[in-house]
Design a protein that fits this description.
- This protein is mostly helical.
- It has a single domain, classed as Ankyrin repeat-containing domain (Serine Threonine Protein Phosphatase 5, Tetratricopeptide repeat, Alpha Horseshoe).
- The chain is 40% helix and 0% strand.
- The chain is built from eight helices and no strands.
- Helix 3 runs antiparallel to helix 4, helix 5 packs parallel to helix 7 and helix 7 packs antiparallel against helix 8.
- The longest helix has 8 residues.
- The C terminus is likely disordered.
Length: 149
């Protein structure tokens, strides 16, 4: 993975001490969209780094509703489901700014968190999503349909 900031490198290396030091700096670009759109939070989720995900989610400037790069996921929440990282899903869904629908531009070919959880047969995650008052149960598959799977 190409890492073009010290924060992205530290997240990828799971170096908690450096991450904490970097995040204390006011000018840190915690949502820096790198060369291949690898945000620090994306790297933490992709690496199943629960502790680092917690650290990043506690940063006041973190953007939690960003579409991940080069996946069929509509959001980082969908990515956590696709990867089977339930602990990270539950961290993300509790964030006050999370969009449980994972809305992205219609041109972005992707699947919503609810759609991914249904495809993956994660009934507890489906129930958690359905309990959210803002969930769109009629959200459309913006990819290929179930025949693709």
């Amino acid at each position: 993975m190409i890492k073009d900031t010290p924060l992205i490198e530290a997240v990828d290396q799971k170096n908690y001490h450096i991450i904490k030091k970097l995040l204390k700096i006011k000018s840190i670009e915690v949502n820096y969209n790198g060369l291949y759109h690898y945000l620090p939070l994306y790297c933490a989720i992709k690496n199943n780094s629960i502790y680092i995900t917690k650290i990043l989610l506690n940063h006041p400037d973190i953007i939690v509703n960003y579409p991940p790069p080069a996946t069929f996921c509509s959001s980082l929440l969908s990515l956590s489901i696709e990867c089977g990282f339930e602990d990270i899903f539950y961290l993300l869904i509790k964030h006050p700014n999370i969009d449980p629908n994972g809305k992205v531009p219609m041109s972005h070919h992707s699947l919503s968190p609810l759609y991914f959880a249904t495809i993956c047969n994660y009934s507890e995650i489906v129930q958690t999503l359905l309990s959210n008052p803002t969930i769109d149960i009629n959200i459309k598959d913006r990819l290929f349909g179930l025949i693709f799977w």
